[in-house]
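Bump. Still looking for FHA domain-containing protein structure tokens.
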Amino acid sequence: MGLLDSFEKGLERAVNSAFAKTFRSGIQPVEIASALRREADTKAAVVSRDRIIAPNNFVVRLSTDDAERMQGLGGALTDELHALLTKHAKAQGYSFSGPLSISLEGDDKIATGTINVSSGTVEGRVNWQAVIDVDGRRHSLTRARTVIGRGTDADITISDAGSSRKHVEVLWDGERAMMRDLGSTNGTKVDGQKVREAALPSDTTITIGRTDLVFRIVPVATPSRPPRPRDDDATRAFGAIS
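Sorry for the wait, here they are.
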């Protein structure tokens, strides 16, 4: 199996097969992956015998219809494109001057079924951001304490009759995260196990009622590291599970 075949099959395995049925016309997710790989290969530059620099900032422009369909996949597509391009760069011996960034944009000048990829090199530092994906929407955790539940006063509101108004809280100190059930009626599961509180590694699934929320820690490019959030409750909670 060639490298391109392996690259594309990895994307097909990672993106749910139901997506393929959704995109019977127009751009397929695997075509974007291949276009990114070609752009990285074309723009990679040898700077020394032991170092090849590839672009780390990619902008994928699609027709407005194609872009809308791709964005309907939520964070799953961009996360997988990021992982697969990182894997390809490692296999080819490429290095990046800063954190890898991939964005998808709609452009009414692009014809349906066409992909336009531009790239460049942006230097910077990696900052780690905690996010929660719910039903295709991504929520960044900008506070030390984020409350999730059915109530409109929750920081993240979910439409699920099986959830309490304030069901769980997620504590994030800039490096570590944990979940704590707030005395909900139906309880909370973490990766299928019913718990009252638990540490949250990246890619952990929190189940509230019939709703799955996926906690992730993702890299973002920032010129400098912002101050870490602080909260007395978060400090006490992390001290309890250290």
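The mean pLDDT is 82.

Edit: fixed formatting.
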